[in-house]
Amino acid sequence: MRYTPAILIGRGVRVLARWRKPGGGSAVPGLVVNTIAPGFLAHALNGFPQGLVIVSGSSGKSTTTKMLVAALRAHGLTVFTNSSTANIRQGLTSALLERASVTGRVAGDIAVLEMDEGHGAAIAPTLTPRVVALTNVMVDQIDRFHDSDMVAGLLRKIALRSTGVVVINADDAYLADLGGELDSEATGVTVERYGVTSDVLAANPRGLGYTRTAAERLPAGDGLLVTEVSGRSARFALEGVSYPVALPARGTHYAVDAATAVATARAALGSRFDAAVAIEAVGTIPPVFGRGEIVTVNGHEIEFVLVQNPASFQLNVDSLEPSTEQILIAIGSDVRDPSYFWPVDTSSLGHVLIASGSKAHDIALQLVYDDVTVDRIEPDVGVALDAFLALPKPAHGMKTIIFSADGMRRTRAHLGLATNAEEPV
């Protein structure tokens, strides 16, 4: 009962925060509870009968987590997860408050949590995850993570807390080295691997950042491989069987997310794992909050494309339908140094109607250097959106908005859409 006062206070703060700012303030209760009861988070996360699964890495965490939860639920498990994609310490605590009893226990068979690399590494010493899944190491959030070596070090801290299995992307050189380290040391941890074939890499030469593929590193028949990607469909090879896979959005990066989810479900379920059940479940999830999501506003279908680092920007640009003729790009204050995105080749966009956000002039300059025609620069996202939606429906493709996280929040708020991804857990 030692956490009861903190839980009750946190719930009161949650009510006040939502009253003051509907749809927002979701991390505030967690911040309060972590301050007055710093042991609550670990107490709750380590208390699930079938353990804790952590998903971390530079990119793909949110989509992978949602796919993994679907796969585990399809096998009959009751899963607790941070559905709001709140992946930092206070956000995780807030998510737990939604379901915790007054004693601090959360109902469910297993917990599956997306964790930010930095916050995950900070709380890792208090956790005993049964499975840790690592997606990749990329140049990401350079104001927080100064280089890829730093990110790899943070993920290593999380991986070393696993009591059972570490699932790694064998195409990522940093993670491949970590897997080798875990294999060679007497850690008691099993390493399971997944990745893409050389054919998939050859068809996607930009953005993935791989120089060798899992197919070249792994023994024949070992691990899960993405063998083919075409639009919103893919094929996986696992234990000599080829499976068709439906994806929530276009692109090889979504196929890799799906592979992470299936490989992690396999690690978590052990002998109960049914590949066909897991893959079918993965194919049923909708796009995750801004990541290939399609919404309808005033009769217009709009595709939202979230870009969070150079790799995701490149992969998403390359995955757009070639006939897309109405594009708005909104890059906001979260991109503190606009040169961060200059490694991205945006030339395939050809024509952008409006560049918007607080970094509108910076992204417009990059586009022009890549020989992309930019019709208008409008830093005010609301004004830009009104002008964009006032245009007639495109003759080819659908209206497409490419945005950073800040641009996404401002876009959704202006359009009257939810500004967080909370849903029942």
From TrEMBL:
**HAMAP family to which the protein is assigned, alphabetical:** Lipid_II_synth_MurT
Similarity comment: Belongs to the MurCDEF family. MurT subfamily.
Tell me the keywords, alphabetical order. ATP-binding, Cell shape, Cell wall biogenesis/degradation, Ligase, Metal-binding, Nucleotide-binding, Peptidoglycan synthesis
Q: Which GO terms are recorded in the biological process aspect for this UniProt protein?
A: cell wall organization; peptidoglycan biosynthetic process; regulation of cell shape
- Provide the species name: Cryobacterium frigoriphilum
The protein's job, in short, is: The lipid II isoglutaminyl synthase complex catalyzes the formation of alpha-D-isoglutamine in the cell wall lipid II stem peptide. The MurT subunit catalyzes the ATP-dependent amidation of D-glutamate residue of lipid II, converting it to an isoglutamine residue.
Q: Which GO terms describe its molecular function?
A: acid-amino acid ligase activity; ATP binding; carbon-nitrogen ligase activity on lipid II; metal ion binding
Protein name listed in UniProt: Lipid II isoglutaminyl synthase (glutamine-hydrolyzing) subunit MurT
Domain Lipid II isoglutaminyl synthase (glutamine-hydrolyzing) subunit MurT C-terminal residue range list:
306-379
A Pfam family the protein falls into: MurT_C
EC number in record: 6.3.5.13
Ranges for domain Mur ligase central come to 55-199
Q: Which InterPro entries match?
A: Lipid_II_synth_MurT, Mur-like_cat_sf, Mur_ligase_cen, MurT_C
* Signal peptide bounds: none
Top EC class, one word: ligase
Q: Does the keyword Metal-binding apply?
A: yes
Q: Which pathway is it part of?
A: Cell wall biogenesis; peptidoglycan biosynthesis
Q: Which domain of life is it from?
A: Bacteria
Catalytic reaction list:
beta-D-GlcNAc-(1->4)-Mur2Ac(oyl-L-Ala-gamma-D-Glu-L-Lys-D-Ala-D-Ala)-di-trans,octa-cis-undecaprenyl diphosphate + L-glutamine + ATP + H2O = beta-D-GlcNAc-(1->4)-Mur2Ac(oyl-L-Ala-D-isoglutaminyl-L-Lys-D-Ala-D-Ala)-di-trans,octa-cis-undecaprenyl diphosphate + L-glutamate + ADP + phosphate + H(+); beta-D-GlcNAc-(1->4)-Mur2Ac(oyl-L-Ala-gamma-D-O-P-Glu-L-Lys-D-Ala-D-Ala)-di-trans,octa-cis-undecaprenyl diphosphate + NH4(+) = beta-D-GlcNAc-(1->4)-Mur2Ac(oyl-L-Ala-D-isoglutaminyl-L-Lys-D-Ala-D-Ala)-di-trans,octa-cis-undecaprenyl diphosphate + phosphate + H(+); beta-D-GlcNAc-(1->4)-Mur2Ac(oyl-L-Ala-gamma-D-Glu-L-Lys-D-Ala-D-Ala)-di-trans,octa-cis-undecaprenyl diphosphate + ATP = beta-D-GlcNAc-(1->4)-Mur2Ac(oyl-L-Ala-gamma-D-O-P-Glu-L-Lys-D-Ala-D-Ala)-di-trans,octa-cis-undecaprenyl diphosphate + ADP
Q: How does it assemble?
A: Forms a heterodimer with GatD.
